[in-house]
Design brief:
- The protein has 581 residues and is of the alpha/beta class.
- Helix content is 33%, strand content 22%.
- The chain contains 19 helices and 22 strands.
- Strands 6-7-8-3-9-10 form a six-stranded mixed sheet, with helices on both faces.
- The longest helix has 17 residues.
Length: 581
């Protein structure tokens, strides 16, 4: 079809950042009255493409065309005025302003003398929100509403500006099932009215429910574009991950050594029925000493949230964690660390490394209490510990006193590993341990994980790289939308079987009971039986919390735990609310 028939399109779009080619000659186009899915794994370039389309970034090469004519948007406001409206995953409204003011921000109805006509604004706000299933006092501050209701307000605002193109970036991430159905109804009405919709999501069932066409990005390039109806789910997963079904590798491509001997050992870590509103639902699995258990699934399936819930960075509304049979207070990072659980976070820059501190200070950060006596820290013990781990992990730095922020990504990752290994954990949670580091550092990290497992450490491995996950894991627990949907063990731990499990999990026709379970049935029944008396006899606990309140920060989790509140209740259906490596 001719380019002029696209209401919004790009040709040869390229965007560079220092050291990163985010978009590499991307061609993309959406027609009026079409819902076009934009999919790809983490780092594929989806967010960058959206920001170029909506005026946040200017392209380095190529062009954006609106209704067949070249277009350039200096700001997001310019894009909005041209008819392109965006709904972001994170609500980007003003929480202290009223609901009505947020709906009409920048285009408030005016009365005589140019003053805002509040009565009219309130009436129209109530009418608009009724169409989205939101019943709220539009005079209240937006921040007093639940996250799902705020997202619906953002949706209503984006649609009510008379846009010809609506870009939706993970719009269901905070919505309950009822709100998701309302959203789908709105999308269908937009399509019927001739509005073009660009829909970004990693939930395949959503894509097949509302989208007409799909564009797949991988590593900043467009690898597929066409109708969605004729594209099998397994093929779509294959395109996203860059792997052909049936591809057989003669030899591994990682530096993992192979299976570890842990089959007969009692679990060192047991997670049972972990639920976090809008994020996790009844997640259960075990890790044995000397075993590497992988978490598989697409981005947003709940892998990172599972690791954070185990490590106390997210407060579960239900479920429990035990280490070597001893219960660990959930929602408390300090309690998890004391129990022997260490988490290497996915984002080392914002959640791990402290760039302004030295290598020495970063490594010693988690073990200062153990290295002190009478409140005084032993500098000699710190120096000995830091020297040991810098040598063992081959951390390249000018000295232990060099700032960690000056190191390469691979050496920063090693510093983080050194910090948590210094804490002498019994369980190590690794969330994308080799992301963004060079080939040499990646091989060293992979060898280290093997060595740790051989030394008897229990390891939970999260990785978006299939080779790394398959070759590094003894078992793989498959997640989808925040729930465990299967487990691969033994000879089933292969790339093809994992891809089939991920694709099957995304297919609503496959029942969860048809897939292998992560815990034996008797263990799951035992866990539920032990939880039932607590739930029935404690009305002031987790079940009394407000469904609209999402998980808070780690500090909030510590506070709630200290007050005896284990957090908000689990959602009815985690990421059916709708998911997020």
């Amino acid at each position: 079809m001719a380019e002029a028939e696209y209401v919004l399109s790009t040709r040869g779009l390229t965007k560079r950042f220092p050291g990163v080619l985010a978009l590499d000659g991307v061609d993309f186009g959406v027609r009026a009255g079409e819902v076009h899915a934009l999919v790809g794994e983490n780092g594929a370039g989806k967010s960058t493409l959206i920001k170029v389309l909506t005026g946040v970034y200017a392209p380095d090469e190529g062009e954006v065309r609106l209704r067949g004519e070249p277009a350039s948007f200096a700001t997001p406001l310019a894009a909005q005025q041209a008819g392109i409206s965006t709904i972001y995953q994170e609500v980007n409204l003003v929480p202290l302003m009223s609901v009505a003011r947020n709906l009409f921000l920048g285009r408030e109805p005016r009365g005589r003398f140019g003053l805002i006509d509040f009565a009219r604004m309130h009436r129209e706000s109530e009418r608009i929100l009724r169409d989205y299933g939101v019943r709220a006092d539009v005079r209240r501050p937006l921040g007093e509403l639940g996250v799902g209701a705020q997202q619906m307000v953002a949706l209503a605002r984006a649609v009510s500006v008379d846009a010809r193109v609506v870009v939706m970036d993970e719009p269901t991430s905070s919505l309950e099932p009822r709100e998701v159905e309302t959203l789908f109804g709105v999308i269908r009405r937009l399509r019927d009215a001739g509005v073009a919709v660009v829909y970004v999501s990693h939930r395949l069932d959503e894509l097949y429910a509302v989208c007409d066409a799909v564009t797949v990005l991988r590593d900043g390039r467009g690898v597929h574009s066409g109708p969605l109806a004729g594209l099998e789910r397994l093929r779509l997963v294959s395109l996203m991950l860059g792997r052909e079904i049936g591809e057989v590798r003669a030899e591994g491509t990682t530096k993992f050594g192979g299976d570890h001997e842990a089959a007969s050992a009692e679990p060192v870590l047991r997670a049972e029925g972990l639920s976090v509103p809008h994020q996790l639902h009844d997640v259960s699995f075990t890790v044995r000493p000397g075993e590497v258990v992988g978490l598989g699934g697409l981005l947003g399936s709940g892998r990172t949230e599972t690791a954070k819930a185990v490590a106390g960075a997210l407060t579960p509304g239900a479920g429990r964690v035990t280490v070597a049979g001893a219960p660990v207070r959930t929602g408390s990072p300090g309690a998890a660390i004391r129990a022997g659980i260490s988490l290497l976070p996915e984002d080392r820059k914002s959640e791990g490394i402290v760039p302004g501190l030295s290598v020495r200070e970063n490594i010693a950060l988690a073990v200062l209490p153990r290295l002190s006596r009478g409140g005084l820290v032993s500098e000699a013990r710190i120096d000995s510990l830091v020297r040991t781990f810098m040598e063992r992990l081959r951390i390249k730095a000018s000295s232990p006193h060099q700032k960690a922020g000056e190191l390469s990504g691979g050496n920063q990752q090693k510093v983080l590993l050194a910090r948590w290994l210094a804490a002498e954990p019994r369980v190590l949670l690794l969330d994308e341990p080799t992301r963004g580091i060079d080939v040499g550092a990646k091989a060293e990290v992979q060898r280290l994980v093997d060595e740790l497992a051989e030394d008897g450490l229990g390891v939970l491995l999260i990785s978006s790289e299939l080779e790394e996950l398959i070759e590094g894991s003894d078992r793989v627990v498959v997640l989808r939308d925040g729930a465990v949907v299967g487990e691969l063990t033994g000879d089933d731990v292969t790339e093809d079987r994992l891809m089939e499990a991920v694709a099957a999990a995304a297919d609503g026709e496959v029942a969860r009971e048809d897939l292998p379970q992560a815990l034996p049935a008797e263990d799951r029944m035992e866990a539920r039986a032990e939880d039932a008396p607590r739930a029935a006899g404690d009305d002031s606990g987790p079940g009394a919390a407000d469904d609209d309140s999402g998980p808070g920060s780690a500090d909030d989790a510590e506070r709630r735990a200290a007050e005896g509140d284990s957090g908000p209740p689990s959602a009815r259906s985690p990421r059916e609310e709708a998911p997020h490596g």
